[in-house]
Amino acid sequence: IIRSFYPKLLSGKKVLITAGPTFEALDPVRGITNSSSGKQGYSIASACSRYGAEVLLVSGPVHQQTPAGAVRFNVTSAEEMKNCVIQLLEEEKPDVFISVAAVADYRPAHFSDKKIKKENSSDSYSLELTKNPDILSLVGHLESKPLCIGFAAETNDVIDNGRLKLQRKGADLIVANPANAINSDSNDAVFITKDSLKTVGPGSKEALADTLVLEINRLLKDRNC
Ligand code: CTP
Ligand code: CA
């Protein structure tokens, strides 16, 4: 019943969202990951669905319930997330891509089929890492690309770093926020586009998701003018 009170601002629109962390395996029992609850991405998926969008949610490993109306694709590594996103871009042609996932920047260069044993002869252990693909940047540089939205969690120079990411990744909007929001329930953020700067919050991740939907609606309209 509550759903019907929301204006269907995004009806007829398809939104592809990545959420949660990625996990990069080192051996069958270990790996490296990023700290991410998935809460912000799932709140955004839920808001987009409430506002009438068709939602495709590509999710790393999280403990979150799939929002009503969203179709969820589970992935583990950044490489899997990238492949899933590329396939959905081709098959579903989404209008909007929202990259909320905390993608691990690097993965172990080698995967060991067998559990790596501790060497008692040495007190240190080095791990070789390989850079993961930048999924947002990849989508942001496609010739016919959806409206691209990224996040930037920063410990310092939030706006400057956000602006750099907007340019480098070919995004239309960066939601920049202090890094301490990652595992908390609330968020204060700055919406950065090439010609505007807007502070949002402090407020809940749900409130930020609602404000983001309004901004997406505005950007989609600008785009079609
Ligand atoms: N992102 C991505 N693929 C990656 C890394 C990041 O799609 N391999 C996306 C994130 O989902 C986010 C945006 O890019 O929307 C910014 O992520 P962030 O980690 O802040 O940026 P990086 O470019 O990885 O820079 P750094 O971690 O060095 O600040
Ligand atoms: Ca990163």
UniProtKB/TrEMBL annotation:
Pathway connected to this protein: Cofactor biosynthesis; coenzyme A biosynthesis; CoA from (R)-pantothenate: step 2/5; Cofactor biosynthesis; coenzyme A biosynthesis; CoA from (R)-pantothenate: step 3/5
Start and end residues of each stretch annotated as Phosphopantothenate--cysteine ligase: 15-225
Reaction(s) catalysed by this chain's protein: N-[(R)-4-phosphopantothenoyl]-L-cysteine + H(+) = (R)-4'-phosphopantetheine + CO2; (R)-4'-phosphopantothenate + L-cysteine + CTP = N-[(R)-4-phosphopantothenoyl]-L-cysteine + CMP + diphosphate + H(+)
GO MF terms held by the record: FMN binding; metal ion binding; phosphopantothenate--cysteine ligase activity; phosphopantothenoylcysteine decarboxylase activity
An individual GO BP term: coenzyme A biosynthetic process
Residue ranges annotated for the DNA/pantothenate metabolism flavoprotein C-terminal domain, each copy included: 10-217
KW Glycosyltransferase (keyword) present: no
Residues the entry annotates as binding CTP: 105, 115, 133-136, 151, 165, 169
One cellular component term from this protein's GO annotations in UniProt: phosphopantothenoylcysteine decarboxylase complex
Keywords: Decarboxylase, Flavoprotein, FMN, Ligase, Lyase, Magnesium, Metal-binding, Multifunctional enzyme
Cofactor: Mg(2+); FMN
Note accompanying the cofactor annotation: Binds 1 FMN per subunit.
EC number(s) on file: 4.1.1.36, 6.3.2.5
Function description: Catalyzes two steps in the biosynthesis of coenzyme A. In the first step cysteine is conjugated to 4'-phosphopantothenate to form 4-phosphopantothenoylcysteine, in the latter compound is decarboxylated to form 4'-phosphopantotheine.
Similarity-based family: In the N-terminal section; belongs to the HFCD (homo-oligomeric flavin containing Cys decarboxylase) superfamily. In the C-terminal section; belongs to the PPC synthetase family.
Record-given protein name: Coenzyme A biosynthesis bifunctional protein CoaBC
Organism from which the protein derives: Turicimonas muris
Organism phylogeny: Bacteria, Pseudomonadati, Pseudomonadota, Betaproteobacteria, Burkholderiales
Complete-protein stretch covered: 177 to 401 of 405
